[in-house]
Specification:
Helix 4 packs antiparallel against helix 5 and helix 6 packs across helix 9. The longest helix has 32 residues. The protein has a single domain, classed as Four Helix Bundle (Hemerythrin (Met), subunit A), CATH 1.20.120. The protein has a two-stranded antiparallel sheet. With 253 residues, the protein is mostly helical.
């Protein structure tokens, strides 16, 4: 009996000593802070800073997973923490920003659409976590929540940056928020960019094109960012439609 109690005490001590990896979770914490900062700035009426904070959170979110894989510090805790951070930064924060910015004056319709966006982000993250081991790594099923958040925040940023009155574009903001929320829970396939091999050689024209894009992004970051994510959001519909046409042709043949 005494030996059993000693073994049990040793197991408890091992569980207590088990910690978490610092480096990837530090990036996740920074992304979570950026999402919280975006909410605070939206409450203060500084919507341009809120939108920029969403993009910062998106960059940090991309880095934490890659850092974890490079340093071999993946963990179940890190995956769960990352999902909770994404829910704040790419679920609650964009919905609250666009609601405070343009949807508040639309009454129940405004907060209902903002809530639909939050639900879409939550369902998207839950589905992603449950299908992590069986999903095709080349594609995302449904629009990723960071891209949906960048779509909404990018529109806020570009309108605010050009001094346009939000009241004049509130129906566009409503439609865009609804589109982003529903696309997150759709079955359309979006390219994940996880299969890109950076060690492979590319034509010289590709390097020139990237340099041109970076130059434009430096001059007009709001416009370039928004246009890029609009194109990405539409790519899922185009690609899924093309696959459906190919399957239909193969059945006919």
């Amino acid at each position: 009996m005494g030996d059993f109690q000693q073994e049990r005490a040793l197991i408890k001590n091992r569980v207590r000593r088990r910690g978490i990896f610092l480096l990837p979770n530090l990036f996740t914490t920074a992304a979570l802070f950026a999402g919280f900062y975006a909410i605070v700035q939206a409450m203060n009426g500084r919507f341009d800073q809120s939108a920029v904070a969403i993009f910062v959170a998106m960059v940090l979110d991309m880095l934490d997973g890659r850092v974890a894989r490079l340093t071999k510090t993946q963990s179940a805790f890190g995956a769960e923490y990352d999902s909770l951070s994404d829910m704040v930064s790419f679920g609650a924060a964009p919905a609250l920003i666009v609601y405070e910015w343009a949807l508040r004056g639309m009454g129940k319709l405004g907060w209902f659409v903002a809530f639909l966006y939050v639900v879409g982000a939550a369902l998207r993250l839950a589905r992603f976590n449950t299908m992590l081991d069986v999903a095709d790594k080349r594609y995302f099923q449904g629009l990723p929540s960071p891209a949906a958040a960048a779509l909404v925040a990018g529109f806020v940023w570009i309108v605010d940056d050009n001094g346009i009155d939000p009241e004049g574009v509130r129906w566009v903001a409503l439609g865009l928020t609804l589109f982003a929320g529903l696309t997150m829970v759709s079955n359309f396939k979006f390219y994940s960019f996880k299969t890109i091999n950076l060690r492979r050689t590319v034509p010289f024209a590709v390097v020139l094109l990237l340099a041109f894009i970076f130059a434009i992004a430096t001059y007009q970051p709001a416009i370039v960012g928004f246009v890029g994510f609009v194109a990405y959001a539409l790519s899922g519909y185009i690609w899924s439609g093309w696959l459906a046409i190919r399957r239909r042709r193969s059945k006919v043949e």
